[in-house]
Design goal:
The complex is a heterodimer of chains A (112) and B (119). Chain A is an all-beta fold and 112 residues long. In chain A, strands 2, 6, 7, 8, 11, 12 and 13 form a seven-stranded mixed sheet that branches. Helices cover 0% and strands 50% of the residues of chain A. Chain B has 119 residues and is mostly beta strands. Chain B has no helices and eleven strands. Classes of the chains: A mainly beta (112), B mainly beta (119).
Chain lengths: 112, 119
């Protein structure tokens, strides 16, 4: 199975500042035939199910604010949240869907 | 409104069985692959099982293979998870999730149903 490792486990960022969450996979998630990275990012607020933010490593899901940005390729990926808002407090997860079973990172807790 | 509503979670003894259901609404159910994902405080998010739109391909995580069976009834817009030989480590919040077209990301999630396996 592909192991997904996120860092840090938690971070605290001031309102209006930038938050950066990293995700590393144990093998490349880049599929050479279509040049796509099979990686997604989710946001989970307390008491709610996860919400899809980003797929194909950098494509924002419809309705997701553009302050959320996904980047990276191969085995190293980053979720950047610019101009942090109070409503961004959540746990963020990365997920690989390159190969079955789909696997998730352990989560990064973002606080203000 | 696009929605997934799970049910069937319960407290059950080890070795017993349970069937979860997930009713979909607000979209054409048989256009989408569907999945079960579970969450525990200790192990985080774990993909459990997935099924294609026409049930022609099913897949399972290693921890549930041979014990759990995924199925769907497109006429009833319902996804199922039959769980047999339950173990304490199956204790989790079970989510139903829709597979985003063309990807295996999960774009719609239910609120989850809690399964507790304990004597």
């Amino acid at each position: 199975d592909i192991v997904m490792t996120q860092s840090p486990d938690s971070l605290a960022v001031s309102l209006g500042e930038r938050a950066t969450v990293n995700c590393k996979s144990s093998q490349s998630l880049l599929y050479s035939s279509n040049n796509k990275n099979y990686l997604a990012w989710y946001q989970q607020k307390s008491g709610q199910p996860p919400k899809l933010l980003i797929y194909w490593a950098s494509t924002r899901e419809s309705g997701v604010p553009d302050r959320f940005r996904g980047s990276g390729s191969g085995t190293d990926f980053t979720l950047t949240i610019n101009s942090l808002q109070a409503e961004d407090v959540a746990v963020y997860y990365c997920q690989q869907y390159y190969s079955t079973p789909d696997t998730f990172g352990q989560g990064t807790k973002l606080e203000i | 409104e696009v929605q997934l509503v799970e049910s069937g979670g319960d407290l059950v003894q080890p070795g017993r069985s349970l069937r979860l259901s997930c009713v979909a609404s607000g979209f054409i159910f048989d256009d989408y692959g569907m999945h079960w994902v579970r969450q525990t405080p200790g192990k985080g998010l774990e993909w459990v099982s997935g099924i294609t739109s026409e049930s022609d391909y099913l897949d399972y995580g290693d921890s549930v293979k041979g014990r759990f069976t995924i199925s769907r009834d497109n006429g009833k817009n319902t996804l199922y998870l039959q769980m047999n030989s339950l173990r304490p480590e199956d204790t989790a919040l079970y989510y139903c999730a829709r597979g985003k077209t063309g990807t295996d990301a999960f774009d719609i999630w239910g609120q989850g149903t809690l399964v507790t396996v304990s004597s």
